[in-house]
Specification:
Elements lengths: L2 H20 L14 H21 L17 H21 L18 H20 L8 H21 L10 E4 L6 E4 L1
Helix pairs in contact: 1-3, 1-4, 2-3, 2-4
Length: 187
């Protein structure tokens, strides 16, 4: 996938989460104990704001999420805030050069091109959370799903290992897509 495909995914997945939120914000998200659809929308909206702020400011260090303003409390205001924030995130990610220096948590270069991919996956996962809470989860699109598996192996696992996560899994893991290209072997 490329930058514009990631931005399209953020836009599409954000719109789908907003649609799920309009079905009801106080519905529990059973697989995330203590969370509701409101929690998912607030969380993702704040992540979008956090990333947008770092990219906009070309932050060279991690910004604290504690400094972000609280999301609006009203149902309609919250969904509108989320949608507006997602639009602004996509706009900012599309406007920044991919090689511009922006902090990220990976072990790769700290450049802006990290964020469209990360936000596409973060948004897709939480869209699924919101839809599942309402009993209508759609699968993550195939191309994005394959890229998400790739991200786990090329970005997330190296970070976890670097941070001291246990590295011995006691065997080999083979992941093979059955509906498209994609195969990984982890030892």
């Amino acid at each position: 996938m490329e930058g514009s495909a990631y931005l399209d995914a953020v836009r599409r997945e954000s719109a789908a989460l907003a649609e799920a939120a309009r079905r009801g914000l106080d519905v529990p998200v059973d697989h995330c104990p203590g969370w509701t659809v409101r929690s998912v929308v607030e969380h993702l909206g704040l992540i979008h704001l956090w990333v947008r702020t770092m990219v906009e400011n070309r932050a060279t260090e991690r910004l604290s999420r504690r400094d972000l303003p609280d999301p609006p409390a009203g149902d309609d205001e919250l969904v509108a805030w989320f949608e507006s924030g997602a639009d602004r995130l996509v706009e900012m990610l599309g406007a920044v050069g991919p090689d511009e220096h922006v902090w990220n948590w990976s072990l790769r270069p700290h450049v802006a091109s990290f964020w469209p991919r990360r936000m596409a996956h973060e948004t897709a996962v939480h869209r699924w959370d919101g839809e599942r809470a309402h009993g209508v989860p759609r699968p993550v699109g195939g191309e994005l799903a394959v890229d998400g598996i790739e991200e786990v192996f090329d970005t997330i696992v190296p970070r976890l290992l670097h941070d001291g996560a246990p590295s011995e899994i006691g065997g080999t893991l083979h992941v093979h897509c059955t509906d498209r290209e994609g195969e990984w072997l982890v030892s």
